[in-house]
Amino acid sequence: MQEYDQRRTDARDAGQRLVARHVREDPFAAAFKATRMPMIVTDPTQADNPIIFCNAAFEKLTGYSSVEVVGRNCRFLQGGDTNPETVARIRSAIDAGSDIAVDILNYRKNGQSFWNALFLSPVRDDNDKIVYFFASQLDFTNVKSREAELAAARHQAEEAVAEATRNLRAALATRTLLVHEVDHRVKNNLLTMASIVKMQARLTKDEGQRSALMSVLNRIEAISTVQRKLFTTDDVARFDIADFARELATDLVGAIKRDDIHLTLDLTPVYVPAVKASPLSLIVNELVGDAVRRGLSDGGGEIHILVKRLNGHFLIRVEDTSEPVEPDETSAELGRMLLEASARQVEARIERTQAGRRTIVDVTLLVESEKDVPY
Amino acid sequence: MKVMIVEDEMLLAMELESEVEAAGHSVVGVAASSGQAADIVRDAPPEFAFVDINLQDGPTGINVGRMLAEKRIPYVFVSGNIKKLPDDFAGAIGAIEKPYTINGMANALAYISALVQGDDSMPPPASLVLAQDAPRPVRN
Questions:
Q1: Which NCBIfam families does the entry link to (chain B) (predicted)?
Q2: Is the pTM of this model over 0.90?
Q3: Which residue from A276, B98, B108, B121 could staple onto B128, CB 3.0 to 4.6 Å apart?
Q4: Pairing between β-strand A313-321 and β-strand A349-355 as defined by DSSP bridges
């Protein structure tokens, strides 16, 4: 106890010596004492590096009076939740005689903790010997708690986003499953419809009935092919009319097995929005079907199909060279109606020119340019 | 050629049977499940098979396909969703995507029949996606 008292006296003396070196009017001393920034000075030449001076702002911050702190090492500001690693860092800075700026949890006299932005710096004499340590404190508890609030808010937001993402993923999975299920149903139903028509066509003895059923089947199959091709692509929203034309024409000409019908194709991918797929496919179906029927009846011919883009428009041309024949009236009327309705649906222009044995049908239509870009 | 049809939609199976017979082939059996397919293969081995992916006992068509591949019986899948097929097509020659057309099926049948008899000179029809040409889905 006596030793402690002695140390306090020594510290106080040292502090007084320090102050005495400055005249009362010394603006630096006055500033030190009056500043709102809490500051202390310690004396490393004495045992345990005690505080020898503190200013009023320090007293106000910590709740300790000058009398209570002078002569003590400043570790009394530490408490239960002070990070020992931070303390160790301060310790080694002092040992190394270097500056340090750290955030440390300190405690006031009343036990309340505060976040202290501590800056500690050695003061050297002319011989470069450390004579004092100077420390300034800054209570940033409010900043720290705002940081904590922000972190908590961010954490909450992240949780909410994660939850929303989980829900979206689940909804998407359900939707995808539903789309696949509906797609599968539609495909099966289209094939079932086609099968019923095929069965009846096979059963009937009446050639007229059979031909009418096959005419219906032909259109059902055109729509079926659209459905198949629409969902085969990864991008459901687009449909390549050239791809459709290729499959339709090669399947048709392949199945009739006639060496005297020659098919040539000049096709560039042209993507159209899904809504235009069915009417456009019906148009292609009618034109190609017509050309093949002409070739069939007259004993052969040439069929040429061209699909290409043309300055923001696109062109489907079906050209055939064969003996023009008078088609069956009903089937010609149906074909004409389907063409007309489909053309009106997609705002396409159909031009037919006939010269001798050659028939050329041009279908032109405006396509949105961004839909044209193939990947 | 002796053909087996593995398809759980009876109406579709019946119509396909007619088309196969119209093309001059015979149908040794129609199976609606993987078990029935195994029975037919055991009792009346076909020379070729059409196999749907979804059967009465679930998506077991792929297993039926693997069994056929093991027994070296050539086959093609007939399905509304050929994207469900594994990359190796489970040993199938290829796949015909539903809804197929009467011409598409006739052309595929002609090609397959030639192929099974060892004639690979015919160009494959548009309706048949060959295993080696199958588009690999790009996942992002």
A1: PRK13435.1-2
A2: no
A3: B108
A4: unpaired
